[in-house]
Write a structure and sequence with these properties.
Helices cover 25% and strands 33% of the residues. A hairpin with a 2-residue loop joins strand 5 and strand 6. The relative contact order is 0.33.
């Protein structure tokens, strides 16, 4: 919380006149009830199209029954992740929401994993680990999904 009347731009070395924002949304489809879809190529392409060299990348999967994570895009690990999520939140768990929609397990898994990722962009490159891929974790497919990519910086 700022105690003075100055904005964050006035209190820092940031020149707000140089601050830009950029947004792109794209769609993808899952093919299975449960699967992990690699979206790394689309996210990195979108971030590059922003033209922003230094700033923040925000990636949001705006759905309640799918999640977004950074992890290795390796088939064995992806199956391990799906299996562990099933162990933690079984499909038939006597959930209250199942009286309405029969997909409470998908909502709960999404809530546990999360739906957004924020990473820095430095010198035009998204800063991420060697094995970190942008992975959509589908739990209620097959469905058409959206992914939002927002970049801000200079």
């Amino acid at each position: 919380m700022w105690l003075s009347g100055k904005s964050s731009c006035e209190k820092s070395a940031i020149n707000c006149d140089d601050m830009k924002t950029w947004f792109r949304e794209f769609s993808f489809s899952s093919r299975e009830r449960r699967e992990i879809v690699d979206l790394t190529g689309q996210v990195l392409e979108a971030a590059g199209q922003s033209g922003i060299k230094n700033g923040l990348l925000v990636v949001q999967l705006p759905h309640a029954t799918a999640a977004l994570m950074l992890n290795e895009n390796e088939e064995g690990l992806k199956q391990d992740i799906l299996n562990k999520l099933d162990d933690l939140v079984p499909a038939r768990g006597g959930y209250q929401h199942d009286r309405i929609d029969d997909n409470a397990h998908a909502h709960l898994k999404s809530a546990l994993v999360g739906s957004s990722v924020v990473l820095p962009i430095v010198d035009g490159k998204v800063v991420r680990g060697t094995w970190q891929s942008f992975l959509a974790v589908e739990q209620d497919g097959p469905r058409r999904r959206r992914l939002a990519v927002f970049v801000m910086g200079e």
